[in-house]
């Protein structure tokens, strides 16, 4: 199926979010629509095109966007990644989509991956305009993830640094940043070798990604537990796509959250680790999403 893509922009809390709208070319009728955004710090060009194109070829309109402070969207400081703000961007993207002639306003689904996989749980729990959810390799409990990645003494020191930064910011101090990823042994937010490899490869293909995030973003990450509202998503249909060896989002945390979800729900286990969903297991992960959207949106 041939598709068209056009640039779009919409307002979110006074700033412009920018993205793309994909539509099947042969039929201009309003379509069931999937709203989607990327994981932590990533812009839409860093792996979302392949999903959007595949979804569109199956007959869906697809709205892909960058959050405020990232990618092509407005906002300073760059690299501000506050989960509550990104959830609001998702909801404003839905509001915008419902104004478009290409979109069936009563058949909107959301797709998210990693950090945005968690955002989709949060959005769907409270926004019943959402009629279908796919949450891929979702981050469901950031505090528990941090405890597993960091020794107790390092975690305690991190909190002390965040407190000092908060007080400095309160007193008019400058913004502080840390790298999102880095080579082994260098301080950064995502310290795994797999994260460094994936982000470095994705960044080599784009010009609008900066390897930085605000220190406040780390503070808000540690407070974010979207899995705790998963039981509020029902009766909206939920499919989770979980990687069998997910060391970043932690497979067992995702499956534990899934157990709390109410019907209708489905879980698909894919091979490999967190980032294999975009690469080696892309066919499997995209097929699982398409099947769920076809069942509940078309």
Features:
9 helices; alpha/beta; two-stranded antiparallel sheet; eight-stranded mixed beta sheet; 298 residues; globular; Rossmann fold
Give a summary of the structure in a few sentences.
The chain has helices at residues 49-57, 83-97, 115-126, 142-149, 152-170, 193-203, 215-222, 251-260, 282-296; strands spanning 3-12, 15-24, 31-37, 61-65, 103-113, 130-136, 177-178, 213-214, 238-243, 265-270.
Fold and architecture overview:
By secondary structure, the protein is of the alpha/beta class. It has one domain: Alpha/Beta hydrolase fold, catalytic domain (Rossmann fold). Helices cover 36% and strands 22% of the residues. The chain is built from nine helices and ten strands. It has helices at 49-57, 83-97, 115-126, 142-149, 152-170, 193-203, 215-222, 251-260, 282-296; strands at residues 3-12, 15-24, 31-37, 61-65, 103-113, 130-136, 177-178, 213-214, 238-243, 265-270. The strands form two sheets. An eight-stranded mixed β-sheet has the order 1-2-4-3-5-6-9-10, sandwiched between helices. Helix 8 (251-260) links the parallel strand 9 (238-243) and strand 10 (265-270). Helix 2 packs across helix 3 and helix 5 (152-170) crosses helix 7. The longest helix has 19 residues, at 152-170.
